[in-house]
Design a protein that fits this description.
The chain is mainly alpha-helical. The chain has helices spanning 5-11, 16-27, 41-53, 69-76, 99-108, 117-131, 141-148, 150-153, 169-177, and strands at residues 32-36, 58-64, 111-115.
């Protein structure tokens, strides 16, 4: 298995205490960690860090409802491709999942949540209004999953990872009009 991108970045640091501290800051508070799925690198990294630290927490994958290939693969227990991935959430617009990533997702995720276009847009706008961070559409999916799973995560410690600031103001404006 190749190292997930997130681990490669932290392993380049000079102090092992920094590495452990950074990893702990990301995952030790987690009971549920929604992570978007496109090529599987983000969810794979979260699974690897959780397992490396021996934490007892759930990793929850998140996909766009109109790009469900990873969710379908998770449910089927093997790679399932789709004919289209027609979503404005382009960071998760995957039609053909990576077989190795699907294997890791099946083994390490508690579930995969599907998010509608409208809920993805609402989460993107809420993220901007609440934090003044402009996340790309896929970067807001973790928040959308937490909102969608309201009662399921109520009263639990939840960590959301905001990824991807690759967003034009036009995309945010369109999301706000949805």
């Amino acid at each position: 298995m190749s190292f997930p991108f997130a681990l490669v970045l932290v392993l380049n640091q000079t102090s092992m205490e920094y590495v452990v501290g950074a990893m702990t800051a990301v995952v030790c508070v987690m009971q549920v960690a929604p992570v978007k799925s496109n090529d599987g690198s983000g969810v794979s990294a979260n699974i690897a860090v959780r397992d490396l630290l021996g934490l007892d927490c759930e990793i929850v994958g998140v996909v766009a409802e109109n790009a469900p290939a990873y969710a379908l693969s998770y449910e089927a227990g093997h790679v399932v491709s789709t004919e289209s991935a027609d979503t404005f959430v382009d960071g998760v617009a995957c039609r053909v999942p990576d077989p190795d990533a699907v294997e890791r997702v099946i083994a390490g995720c508690a579930r995969i949540v599907r998010i509608s276009e409208a809920d993805a847009a609402k989460a993107m706008v809420l993220m901007y209004r609440a934090t003044h961070n402009l996340a790309e559409p896929a970067g807001s999916l973790a928040l959308a999953a937490v909102l969608a799973e309201g009662e399921r995560v109520a009263g639990r410690k939840v960590a959301m990872i905001l990824t991807g600031g690759n967003c034009d103001l036009d995309v945010l404006e369109a999301a706000a009009r949805r």
